[in-house]
Structures are given as C-alpha cells and as structure tokens.
Amino acid sequence: MKKKETIRLYRAEEKPGSGNKAPDWVEQYPEWQRTNQAVGRWFTDDLEEAEWYLNNMFIDGKIVTVEVPKEVANRYRVSNLEKGGGKDIEENPFAFSRRPEIEYFLPRNIAHQKKDYIE
Prior knowledge:
Helix content: 25-40%
Distance between the termini: 30 Å
Number of domains: 1
Structural class: alpha+beta
Largest sheet: 3 strands, antiparallel
Number of helices: 5
Strand content: 15-25%
C-alpha cells in the first residue's frame, strides 16, 4: 500500500496563559464570536511566514505544526476555498486572508492535532 504524501503546516500562536481574555460584554457581539471561531485554525506552509507572525504579533509566542496529507491540505488552502461575501459572513476565511496561496484554514479537528515545533 502506497503511503500518502504529507505536508507540514505551521502557525504562530500565543503560549497558553499569555493572552488577554476579552471582557464579557465584547464576547456577546457576533463579530467577536465569528473571529473567535477562527482562532487556532490559520496555518501556512511557509515556516518563514509563521516566524514573521511569531516575531511581529506575539510578545510570548511559539510555533506549532500539524502534519496532514497533501490532498487534505489542498482542500483547505484558502485560495482553493469558495470565495463569497465579506467579513460579516461566518466561515469566510478568504475575506480575511492576506496570502491565500500559502494560507490554510483548517477544521478544528485537524488544527487541534498541532504539536510544538522543534527545529
């Protein structure tokens, strides 16, 4: 049986306990809820891109990785996702993507398989 070809995806994120919790009144807004639904699901296939986010967006961050079959990764590459609506549409990563050709918006069950990146 032929082994599936995989790809390693990266993301920068805050270390647990280092971020600030939003006030309760903010958490009630649909805009905040949509943003919160996307947290932890953005990845890139470019380690340098993840390092840029680590160095420019976080005070106390780390890089994590997830290894997925290439065919699965391609399904969730932002440039391959359906484009529709604006930032007010739920589950519309294309509207928020800076570089859709190297960004992936993974389902939670895949994103949660992440591991700390070790060089």
